[in-house]
Design a protein that fits this description.
The structure is a homodimer. The first copy, chain A, starts with 13 loop residues before the first strand and ends with a strand. In chain A, the strands form three sheets. The first copy, chain A, has a seven-stranded antiparallel beta sheet. Chain A is globular, with a radius of gyration of 19 Å. Chain A has four helices and twelve strands; from the N terminus they run ββββαβαββββααβββ. In chain A, strand 8 and strand 9 form a beta hairpin. Chain A has about 240 residues and is of the alpha+beta class.
């Protein structure tokens, strides 16, 4: 079994949201896809341990916002790496109310789908939840974010409860090698010799060779020389949450 | 409901194959995705009327080959638009024998997965078939084909039995407009005034403005001036199968 093969499957990135008894929830997922056309139904794979899964099943509804390519990273940080049980992710966020009852996040989204749950399937660690699309719209004339683009740009892997999570040891070689593989034609890749640091909260990797242009950090800046108030560009964790890779 | 929203979801393109009692079958699908990581399981949505669906269910196995970006169009034509009941798609094709029993097509593929069916779910028009990945490998260090790239390059829509099929009337505006929307920034698009012809077998659209470079036809060649032995670059149908759009 070569686990790197799984990185050759293509996905988008979506914000899935739901609400039950006034409790809103939302998270980021790559595994969302249309499964029938008449009527249009979509499927999402939801970890049984996730707070959102219970809200989706109890309300029998969810929305799916298709994220835009240059997504606001605060949305990824809040919705992708925090639990709705612990924070209110919707303050300061624009959303509509779907006729299914689910909130529909419109920030950083190119399109949305409002869905009523038709069935759920027990897959062991996850439920595959099927929803009929009762309404949909286009918001922005922009490219959608793909999982490949996100993974390459932010050097991110799926978190542990994701259907596409892979233990690092199973990938056999380090992340750097995988990204090289996915960029055919780049034969002059410079392998990095210095120390990379990984955010323990969200898995973001700080690579001194590249710096962190989103936070104003120049390429070539070692982790030790980052300002004390440097924070993870994805989940906003402080420097103390970073560990040598 | 705005059906154009569905074109904002991202997919790859895969060749799914199976074999039962010596009968091999294979087809092209965009709706394949990982649904759990431990154990790794993938899901595919299969139309109940399709020949391949019965073979997959009877053999309780299937393989999934991830197609490469510059796929051999004969593979798309044979596996995407012909029925395995009517022709032997595997002659002249390289494939392995998976330990699940399924043939695994290796031509034009960057990676493959060999899967044992664990369950199937009735979705109305389709079965969602879940398979545990028992083996996988990488074949080529190349980019995978995405559904968006395929749709834009070949001006193709999903065929009628696909989970992502959309009736043209539901898209409200013509295909040309949709492609313009998906290429933000191209404000100088020239709208075509001449006659486009559509292949009745596979849906490929001959656009005289673009010609058909894959068949040596120069841009600006009207359909009427195509050589009599012109054939659809996708499914190999003759000129007589083309109709004015």
């Amino acid at each position: 079994m070569n686990f790197k093969a799984f990185h050759k499957m293509s996905y988008g990135l979506y914000l899935i949201a739901a609400e039950h008894n006034g409790q809103k929830t939302g998270y980021i997922a790559n595994t969302a896809f249309q499964v029938t056309s008449q009527p249009p139904q979509v499927a999402i794979s939801c970890h049984k341990d996730n707070f959102s899964t219970r809200i989706i099943l109890d309300s029998a509804a969810f929305s799916l916002s298709v994220l835009k390519k240059e997504v606001n990273m605060k949305i990824i940080g809040d919705f992708g790496f925090m639990s709705s049980a612990e924070m209110s992710k919707f303050s300061g966020i624009n959303f509509l109310k779907g006729s299914s009852g689910a909130p529909i996040v419109t920030d950083s989204a190119v399109a949305w789908f409002d869905c009523k749950v038709t069935q759920s399937v027990d897959l062991g660690s996850h439920y595959l939840i099927i929803g009929e699309v009762i309404d949909s719209d286009i918001l922005l004339d922009e490219e959608p974010l793909t999982y490949q683009y996100y993974r390459e740009k932010y050097k991110m892997f799926s978190p542990k409860n994701s259907p596409t999570y892979i233990e690092k040891s199973k990938l056999e070689e380090n992340a750097q090698t995988i990204f090289v593989e996915e960029k055919p034609g780049e034969t002059d890749v410079t392998y990095f010799d210095g120390k990379r640091y990984i955010c323990a909260i969200c898995g973001f990797v700080y690579d001194p060779e590249e710096g962190d242009p989103t936070m104003g950090i120049a390429p070539g800046t070692p982790f030790e020389e980052l300002p004390e108030d440097y924070r993870c560009p994805v989940c906003n964790a402080g420097k103390e949450y970073f560990q040598e890779e």
